[in-house]
Each structure stands twice: as C-alpha cells, then as structure tokens.
Design brief:
By secondary structure, this protein is of the alpha+beta class. It has helices at about 10-20, 30-50, 55-60, 65-80, 80-95, 175-180, 250-255, 285; strands at about 5, 25, 100-105, 105-110, 140-145, 155, 210, 220-225, 230, 240-250, 275. The longest helix has 18 residues, at about 30-50. The radius of gyration is 18 Å and the shape is globular. It binds fe (ii) ion.
C-alpha cells in the first residue's frame, strides 16, 4: 500500500520518514513552484523565441538545431543561482530548514514527441530507480511540469515495486564514469542511445503505473528508490519539466533512507561532489570535513 498526501504540511522528521516509507506527496498550490516555473518559462522563451508556442518548437527546428538549443537551455537553467534559490525557497515553504539539506542542481527536461527524438539531451528514461544510478538511499525526488501536460506525455511512477526487488544491471553502473565521461557526452548521442544505462532485467508491469498529469507547477515528491521513468511521448508536443533532488544532511551521513531493494551501483560517494548546501549553496565538499 502506498499513501498519497496532497498539500499537507508535514513536520520535518515525519516528512522524511514518510518519503522513505514510499509515500508520495503532491503539492499543487506552492507559490515557490509557480515562481520557479515562471523562471523556467523565461529561460525557455529566451532560447527558443516567443513567436511560437515552445511546445511546438520541434515542428520548426531540424534535430541538430533543437539539440543545440536544448543543451544551451539546460546549461543556463541548471547552473544559475536563481535555480538554486528557488529550491531553497521551496524547502522553506514546505516547512523544512534549508540549512539541514543538500541539493543537487535542478534539471530542466525537454522531451519532444518520441518519433522526433528520444535520445541524448532528450533521453527517454526506461523504468529505473535512481539508486540504480548510484543515488543515496535518502534521496528525495521532486518533479513538476512547466506547462500543463496530459497523461501521454508525463512521467510514470510504479509504486508496486517500491518494496519488491527487480533484477537489474546496476552492478555495471559506475557513478564516477558517468559523471566524468558519459554525462558530458549527451550531445553526441542524438540519433541513438548507446550509453550503458542501468536497466531492469525483468518485464515491468504497466498496469501498476501511476501517471501524474497536472498543471504548471503541480509537483510530485517521492523517494528516489521508487521505480519511475519517462512515458513515451506520443502527444505531438514537447514536454518541459523541472526536477531536482534534496538530501537531509544527517541522513546522508548516517546512510538513513529508503530500503535499498536491489541497487548495487559503484562509487556512490562520487555523486556527493555535485551537491550544494541548500541554505547558502556551499559545495558539499566545503561543508563536510
Ligand atoms: Fe530517475
């Protein structure tokens, strides 16, 4: 059984415990999320221009130009101070203390219609747990669409597998290699996806999928140990979304978190280098001695 909480104010420790137990939280009314989406829209319009609905931009652009623009958009969005500040403000609005959390830089995902492009900068993630990619057990994921979306262009969670192991290839996954070599090469993988992502070795049930299709800024929060993935986008429109991850300092250091069912990625600690303290954006390595 998985519980879904909607717009509920949950005290600090309980918030994390619920997430680690598999609970999902939906926030549909946060002012900070509305602001974050407004900021993201500005970044999108800066890159693609404002003379066409950005959700239809792929109709106009050749793939190589699309890829170039998406890469520039991602770099600007991910590395800006404003993006980190929006995460700090989100934590405050939901009643958490940013001093207690680390954040991973936020990502903007640009998923065009599947037949146009589904690799490289627009990689369509097959069902996975983030722990297969080396995420800490205490990783808390957030995800929200920037424009309203439908169920055929969203992300999926598959709560059925939260407490059921799935045979997978995460033992071949080396986080150090991904950060140093594979991730920077995303732009080169335009037509096909040859990078070795961790994958399920079992057939995943589709009938237990949960697909959240909301309005701009409607955010789902869930443990990184939940099985999730990209829904094949057959909508004819580009899906723009924001996701970011937060980690409670104590839980990161004490290795508390969701139960690791089946992940065995290597060099997990290498991922900590990407983290910043949510209150002042100090790099992880500068905070933890
Ligand atoms: Fe993921």
């Amino acid at each position: 059984m998985i519980n879904l909480y909607v717009n509920k104010v949950i005290p600090d420790q309980e918030f994390r415990s619920l997430i680690y137990s598999g609970a999902l939280i939906l926030y549909s009314k946060l002012a900070t999320n509305a602001d974050f989406c407004d900021y993201a829209k500005k970044c999108v319009l800066n890159e693609f221009g404002d003379d066409i609905d950005p959700r239809l931009i792929h109709v106009r652009l050749p793939i190589d130009e699309f890829v170039k623009k998406v890469a520039a958009l991602k770099a600007e969005f991910t590395n800006s101070i404003q993006s980190k500040a929006h995460i700090r403000d989100f934590l405050i609005e939901i009643g958490q203390d940013p001093k207690d959390y680390f954040l991973d830089v936020p990502r903007i995902r640009v998923v065009p219609d599947y037949d146009y492009l589904h690799a490289g900068v627009s990689y369509a993630y097959l069902p996975h747990r983030d722990t297969w990619y080396g995420a800490a057990d205490c990783q808390i994921n957030t995800w929200m669409p920037i424009f309203p979306i439908s169920a055929d262009q969203t992300m999926m969670l598959n709560p059925y597998y939260f407490d059921r192991p799935v045979k997978n290839t995460s033992g071949d996954w080396d986080l150090k290699n991904w950060v140093m070599n594979e991730r920077p090469a995303a732009k080169q993988h335009i037509a096909a996806e040859n990078r070795p992502h961790p994958l399920s070795l079992e057939q995943i049930r589709q009938e237990t999928e949960l697909r959240v299709a909301g309005e701009s800024g409607d955010m789902i929060v869930f443990s990184g140990a939940h099985l999730h993935g990209t829904v094949r986008n057959n909508s004819g429109q580009v899906r723009f979304s924001i996701d970011f991850r937060i980690y409670h300092c104590e839980d990161l250091l004490s290795r508390r978190g969701a139960r690791n069912q089946d992940g065995s990625a290597k060099n997990i600690e290498f991922g900590y280098r990407d983290l910043f303290r949510a209150s002042d954006f100090e790099p992880y390595s500068g905070v933890i001695k």
